[in-house]
Amino acid sequence: MPPLWSPLIWLLVAGALLVVELVQPSFDGLMFAVFAGLALSVLTALLPLPAWIQIILFSLITVLGTLWLSRWSARRNPRPGHRRLKEDTAEVLVTIEPGGEGRVRWHGQSWAASSLDVETPLQAGDYVLVINREGTRLQVLPTPPTP
After folding, report:
1. Do 9 and 52 fall into the same domain?
2. Are residues 101 and 70 in the same domain?
3. Residues near 16 by Cβ (< 8 Å), separated by ≥ 6?
4. I need a surface site. Which of 7, 34, 41, 118 has the fewest CB within 10 A?
5. 8 A C-beta contact, residue 104 and residue 93
6. Residue pair 6/13 in contact by the 8 Å Cβ criterion
7. What is the C-alpha separation between 31 and 17, in angstroms, rounded?
């Protein structure tokens, strides 16, 4: 029969971590450590495991669970930068002189546009970044070259 103190220690560790998780709402990531503590509490009540195996199992469950959660969260909530860049990109319809005005296609519609770049002409077919909208006129800049 395994010793009684080992499952109780893991149960206390899980309880303490759960209290910390619930008291600190901005301190995320301890739920897998709580799960690991509870799992080890049950496991050590059933099997006599050496302390070093218990610590390794606790660490593995915590680290792998946290890594899985962060990857799952990253896939579920993509970075807004790429989506925003696509939404803020327009195609030049008529050549726009540096600092001049012309037409661009933005979200499938033709818009009047003013170039904020006073050095670079915008050729028809180029893609520009929409910086601002004033009524029915867009303010645009050339998109940075992709490496």
Report:
1. yes
2. no
3. none
4. 118
5. yes
6. no
7. 8
Q: Alpha-carbon distance 38 to 127, whole Å?
A: 56
How do beta strands 137-142 and 109-115 pair?
A: parallel
Whether the predicted model's global pTM rises above the 0.85 cut: no
Strand partners, 106: 109
137-142/127-134 β-pairing:
antiparallel
Q: SS3 of 111, please? A: strand
- Which range marks the domain in which residue 122 is found? 82-142
Quick one: tokens of 16?
Answer: 């303490």
Query: Which of 76, 102, 124 represents a domain boundary (last residue)?
Result: 76
Which residue numbers in the chain have pLDDT < 50? 1, 83, 147
d(CA 76, CA 56): 30
Let me know if residue 147 belongs to a domain. no
Number of domains in the chain: 2
For the segment 33-56, what is each residue's pLDDT rounded down to a tens digit?
A: 888 988 898 988 888 888 888 889
